[in-house]
Write a structure and sequence with these properties.
Chain lengths: 304, 100
C-alpha cells in the first residue's frame, strides 16, 4: 500500500497526460515520463462493457504503484451515465488526488459530485475535503456557465476545455490559428482567473502535425493557460520548455521579490527596478515565476 | 462468494492477464499458463489463490492466461471475473474490504 501525501490544491500542472485506466501496460509505469499530472481515464477510453474491469484495475494501481511526485487525477464518467457514483467510490477509496468531472455544465454538477465525494470520504475513512475536483467544459453551456462552475467549491483546483466535444457542438474543427475556440478559451480563462483557480487547454490529437502542436502550445502560453492536457509522452518536453520561464525572467523575478521585501522594511511602497516601476502588485507574478523556475530546475534560491 | 455463471476478465495484451472463472465441483481447480512461468509461476499461483480466498470463493474452475501481469493486475482481473460471475461487478464493490 502506497500512502499518497495530501493533495495540494495549487501546484505546478503544466502537463496532464491521459491514460486508459483499463490498460495495465500503460498505467503501471506512467510516472516515468515526467509529466506533472497523469489523468487515469474511466470515461471515453474505456469501452462501455469494461467500466467495471477498469475500476478494479484503477483501485489496485492507486494502492500499489508509487507515482512519486506525479499527481494522479481520475476522469470519471458523466453524470448522465450509470457509472459515475461507483467511479467516485473507487477514486476516493484508492486515494486519487483529484477527480475530473466530465461534461460539466453547471455549478450544480460540481455540487452533485462534491456531495458524492464527501459521502465516499466518510464511507472509506478518508479525511473530508482531501479529494480535489476539476471540471471539464465540453459544451457551449459549460463555457457560458464557466464562472459559476469555477467558483462552485473549495475543492476546485482547475478547469479545462475539452476540444473534441466542444468543436462538434460548435460545428467547427481544429484551425491552425485557434480561431475555432478562441472565444471559448478566453471566456474559460477569465472565469478561472476570476475564481482564482487554474486553467488547462485541451489535447492536440494529430500526433503527425508537430508544427500545429507547437503553434497551439505557444498560443496557450500567450493566452495565460497554466498547462495542457496531452495524449502522448512525446508531447511533454515541448510544453515544459514553453512553460518554463526564460533566464532573464528568473533574474528579474528574483530582483523584484528581493526589492519588494527590502523596501517593505524601509516603508517604501513603490520604487524602480532596472528602470521599471515596481510595487506590491508585482509580487505574486514574480513569486510564481520563481516557483515555476524551481520546478524546471532553473532556480535553487530560498526566496520561494 | 459463489461462482454462479462463467465469467471472464482481462485481455491477452502484454502486462495483462485473462482470467476465466466457472462453477466448480468443490475446491479450486486452477489452470495457469504464463509467458513468465519459469520465473514467476509460483508467485502468480499464490496471488490468484490468495485473492480467491479473500473473496471467499471455495469452489471454482479458474483459468489464468498471464502475459506478464503485475500482482496488482492479477488481483484486479481475478476480482473482476468473480464479481462478474455473481452479476455484482457494477456497483457497491467493497473497496478496501474483500477487495484490497
Amino acid at each position: 500500500m502506497i500512502p499518497r501525501p495530501k493533495p495540494e490544491r495549487f501546484r505546478l500542472r503544466r502537463t496532464m497526460m491521459f491514460m486508459n485506466a483499463q490498460k495495465p501496460g500503460l498505467i503501471k509505469d506512467a510516472y516515468i515520463y515526467g509529466c506533472d499530472s497523469i489523468m487515469l481515464d474511466l470515461e471515453d477510453a474505456v469501452a462501455e462493457n469494461q467500466k467495471d474491469a477498469a475500476r478494479f484495475s484503477l483501485y489496485h494501481a492507486l494502492k500499489t504503484i508509487d507515482y512519486g511526485d506525479t499527481e494522479v487525477i481520475v476522469r470519471i464518467n458523466g453524470l448522465d451515465t450509470p457509472h459515475w457514483q461507483e467511479d467516485i467510490r473507487v477514486c476516493v477509496a484508492g486515494g486519487a488526488d483529484g477527480i475530473r468531472i466530465a461534461k460539466c455544465e453547471s455549478a450544480q454538477d460540481v455540487l452533485t459530485v462534491e456531495q458524492a465525494v464527501e459521502e465516499a470520504e466518510k464511507e472509506f475513512g478518508v479525511e473530508v475535503g482531501r479529494t480535489l475536483l476539476m471540471a471539464a467544459l465540453e459544451s457551449p453551456k459549460g463555457i457560458l456557465n464557466a464562472y459559476e462552475i469555477c467558483s462552485a467549491s473549495d475543492r476546485m483546483f482547475g478547469v479545462a476545455i475539452s476540444g473534441g466535444d466542444f468543436r462538434k457542438c460548435m460545428q467547427t474543427s481544429p484551425q491552425h490559428d485557434g480561431v475555432d475556440m478562441l472565444f471559448a478559451r478566453g471566456q474559460m480563462l477569465l472565469a478561472a482567473r476570476a475564481a482564482g483557480i487554474q486553467c488547462f487547454d485541451t489535447v492536440f490529437t494529430n500526433l503527425d502535425d508537430q508544427e500545429g502542436f507547437e503553434a497551439e502550445v505557444l498560443q496557450n502560453k500567450a493566452m495565460g493557460f497554466d498547462g495542457k492536457s496531452l495524449i502522448n509522452p512525446k508531447q511533454i518536453r515541448f510544453v515544459h520548455q514553453v512553460f518554463a520561464p526564460t533566464e532573464k525572467e528568473v533574474i528579474q523575478a528574483e530582483k523584484i521579490v528581493r526589492a519588494i521585501r527590502e523596501n517593505a522594511e524601509k516603508g517604501l511602497g513603490v520604487f524602480t527596478v532596472d528602470g521599471k516601476m515596481i510595487d506590491i502588485a508585482f509580487l505574486p507574478g514574480a513569486e510564481r515565476t520563481l516557483k515555476l523556475a524551481r520546478a524546471c530546475g532553473m532556480y535553487e534560491g530560498d526566496l520561494v | 462468494m459463489e461462482i454462479l455463471k462463467p465469467a471472464i476478465a482481462g485481455t491477452l495484451e502484454s502486462s495483462d492477464a485473462q482470467v476465466t472463472v466457472e462453477p466448480g465441483e468443490g475446491g479450486i481447480e486452477l489452470s495457469l499458463t504464463s509467458s513468465v512461468m519459469n520465473q514467476y509461476g509460483r508467485q502468480i499461483k499464490a496471488t490468484v489463490l490468495e485473492t480467491l480466498e479473500r473473496l471467499d470463493v471455495s469452489s471454482a474452475r479458474v483459468t489464468v492466461v498471464d502475459k506478464g501481469a503485475l500482482d496488482c493486475t492479477l488481483k484486479a482481473r481475478v476480482e473482476c471475473a468473480v464479481f462478474r460471475s455473481c452479476g455484482a461487478s457494477a456497483a457497491n464493490i467493497p473497496w478496501g474490504g474483500a477487495v484490497r
